[in-house]
Design brief:
Number of helices: 5
CATH superfamily: Umud Fragment, subunit A
Helix content: 25-40%
Number of strands: 8
Oligomer: single chain
CATH architecture: Ribbon
Distance between the termini: 23 Å
Strand content: 25-35%
CATH class: Mainly Beta
Shape: globular
Length: 181
């Protein structure tokens, strides 16, 4: 356990210049001046689900670390839209149990049965049906208003490549990524 802590400290120390540069790049003085209010996920995402079911597009902030490296906790936002068809590779908001929502990527589809997994999760999957999908991510919104369309071929290639990497390589990359943000 001691060696792991020394490696973490060394990585943080070595990567400090990149961490500072990244923090400055993503600093948004306008957003820092706004007061942030948070609702419990159950209440907020139930309301979001109703709007999306009514045909609206809804933008929400991402909370949690399970979609790293493509989405970052409280930094990125996503636009959720109504869906007609979902495919493997799509990020969806799904209610996997009553009042329990996840924003994860579809890794398998068997008819109307879906298997979901967060990009940053090395193990553990969720299962749901098409009826449990509340919305599909159509846009990734970065700080400063930079928008990535979920349909962008380059982004799709990166997501596919990430999913095919061995777990050990993803673990190493996520470790370095976590130290640099």
């Amino acid at each position: 356990m001691e060696i792991k802590n020394y490696i973490k400290r060394a990585a943080r120390w070595l990567l400090t210049p990149w961490r500072r540069a990244k923090a400055q790049r993503y600093a948004d003085p306008e957003q820092d001046s706004l007061q942030r209010k948070e609702l419990p996920n159950e209440a907020l995402l139930t309301l979001v689900s109703q709007y999306v079911a009514g045909g609206e597009r809804v933008v929400i902030s991402v909370k949690g670390y399970s979609m790293r490296p493509f989405l970052e906790h409280l930094r990125d936002k996503v636009e959720l839209s109504p869906w007609t068809d979902v495919r493997v590779g799509d990020a969806v908001l799904a209610e996997i149990a009553a009042g329990h929502f996840v924003l994860h990527r579809i890794i398998r589809r068997d008819g109307d049965r879906l298997t979901l997994k967060g990009d940053g999760n090395l193990r553990g999957e969720e299962h749901c049906t098409l009826a449990d999908v509340r919305g599909v991510v159509t846009k990734y919104i970065r700080p400063g208003g930079h928008i990535l369309l979920a349909s962008d071929p380059q982004l799709k290639r990166k997501i596919k490549f990430w999913g095919k990497l061995p777990v050990g390589l993803r673990r190493a990359y996520l470790f370095i990524y976590k130290q640099t943000i």
